[in-house]
Automatic annotation (TrEMBL):
InterPro entries associated with the record: FTHF_cligase, FTHF_cligase-like_sf, NagB/RpiA_transferase-like
Keyword Magnesium: yes
Keyword ATP-binding: yes
Pfam families per the UniProt record, alphabetical: 5-FTHF_cyc-lig (PF01812)
Reaction(s) the record says it catalyses: (6S)-5-formyl-5,6,7,8-tetrahydrofolate + ATP = (6R)-5,10-methenyltetrahydrofolate + ADP + phosphate
Family per similarity comment: Belongs to the 5-formyltetrahydrofolate cyclo-ligase family.
Cofactor: Mg(2+)
Domain of life: Bacteria
Organism, as annotated: Sphingobium cyanobacteriorum
EC number from the UniProt entry: 6.3.3.2
Annotated protein name in UniProt: 5-formyltetrahydrofolate cyclo-ligase
Amino acid sequence: MSDEQPDKTSLRAIARQRRRAFVAALDPLAHRLAFKAIPSPLARRIADARVVALYMALDDEAPAQRMAAQLLTMGKTIALPRVLDRLGSMDFLAWDPESTLIPGPFRTSHPEPGDGPVTPDVIIAPLVGFDRMMNRLGQGGGYYDRSFARYPDALRVGLAWSAQEMDALPADPWDLPLHVIMTEVELIEGDEA
């Protein structure tokens, strides 16, 4: 038996397979209801936030866009990421859920530029995997890592299905830990924020 830890690429494959199997086995009603309500501890953490960045889920990712209605009721401006290039750059554009989205790179979609980018107070990011040390395993392009660094005062929230939890993830020096992780069954809060 080897003491060597799996690398991020191997962990991504494991986490994606877990997520795919979990979502495929999930009751359709439970899937439709997941992530529609923002738990009160998170609602308290974002009470003073003006701009909350969500994302449009792809494939079997946890559907962040389902939180839009409640965020609007709370008086928040909602933003979505816009991928700018293949170097890991993105910004955030205000989004009205009634508006049509424009196709972007990597099967993403984003709002019309309108008045230009907004500064998020909260960034809700998709996760491929996560651990209890608040480490996040993303797609590997560095887009959210760069955004977290660009907006250091933003609350960093990861969204995932519970099946995506890993025992431990490797963290590189540029990986910023999440402040909060939300799954369909629990809200995990880190020490800082």
